[in-house]
Amino acid sequence: MKRMFAIPFISALIGGGVVVAVIAAAGDLHGSAKNVTVLQSAPLQPSNASQQNAGLTPREIYTRDAPGVAIVSSTIVQKSESPFGLFGEGQRQGQATGSGIVISASGDILTNYHVVENAIKVTVSFEKGKTVDAQIVGKDPSNDLALLHISPDGLALHPLALGNSSAVQVGDPVLAIGNPFNEERTLTTGVISALQREIQSPNGFAIKNVLQTDASINPGNSGGPLLDGSGRVIGINSQIETGGSGGGSVGIGFAVPINTAKAEITQLEKGETVRGAYLGLVSLTIDGSLSALNLPVKAGALVQSVQKGTPAEKAGIHGGGGSTENGQLAVGGDIIVSIDGKATANSSDVANTIRAKKAGDTISIDLLRPNGKGGYEHKTVSAKLANRPEKVSGVTKPEG
Asked: Which domains does the chain have, with CATH numbers?
C-alpha cells in the first residue's frame, strides 16, 4: 500500500529540444478509469454534529453545494537536469488539476497547497464553464493548505458552509465532491472510517487529526470538500491510500480537518505563509500497544528522535538510542508527560500544543527519563520555540 496526493499531474521535460511526457505524483491514469456522478435518494442520517438540515439526501446536498466546488488548474514549472546531462539544466513543465472550495462571496477559495505548489499560473473554473485567473494569497505547506482569490465580478459565487470537524464521529455519513480524473463535480458517498489519523504534508511535517473516509477519492479530488450529512464542509480531501502499482482509490481517503483551516484563514487572507512554531522532535503515542516496553506510564509521548540544532535539542530532550526487534520503534528516549502543566496523553497533544504557540514562545516540558538503573527520573526542561523550517528531509513526519 502507498499513500499519495490526490491530484493528476502531467508534465514535460523542456530543454535542448527534448520533450518527455510523464505522469507523476498521482500514479498512472488509464483510459478505463471512468468515474460517474453518483446520486442516491436515501436520506443521510446525520450525527449530533450535523443535526441542522437533517434528512437531506445526497441528491439535495449535491444540487445545493456542487456550485461551490471549483476546478483548480495549475501550470507548474520545476528545474530539472536533462537526460544524460547532454543539455544542461532544463525545465519540467506540466498541469496539475485539483478542486477548490468557495468560502466567501468575495472570491476566496480554499484548496490543498500541493495543488498549487510551484505554480506559475493558476486558473479556476465553475459549473457553467467560465474560467478565471486566480491569485495564491496565502499558504501553509505544513498542513497542505492554500488560499486562492479570484475577482467575483460577473460570477455568482456559492460559498459553502464550514462545519466542525472536532464533532465528527466514526460512522457519520459523508460526501465528497470533486473532479477525479477530470470528471467534473463527481459526487461520491461514504462514512467517516477513522479519526485522529496522521499523514505527511508536502514539506515533510506531520498533519494531525486527519479524517479517514471510505468515500471514493481519486486524483483530481485534492482540495475539494468532504461534507457532513447536512452539507457542511468538515474536511479538505488531500490524500489516498493506493494498492499495488495502481493510482486509484482502494477505499481509504484522508481529509485535512476543516478546523485546522478555520484556525488559519485570517493569516492566509493577510497573504502570509503560515510557518508555525517548531520544537523539532518526533514522538510516538504511548498506549496498550507498547505494553511490552514496561514503561512507567500508560499515556504520554515517547520521544523517537530529536533533530539537530532545534529547540528540542537545545533544551536537552533525548530521543531513543536503541530499537525493537523489527526496527520500527526507537526505545530509551524521554517520555513527555506534560507541557506547560497540561497532561500529555499522546503525540497529537504535543503537536496541538506546539501548533497553538508561536515562534519565540517558551514552553515548560515535564519528562520521564531512563536513569540507567532500570527506573526513570523526572526532569523539567524549557524550550524556546523557533519558526518551522520550510522543509524537512530525512525525518519521519516531525509533529512539532
From this structure: 1-26+69-272 (2.40.10.120), 277-387 (2.30.42.10)
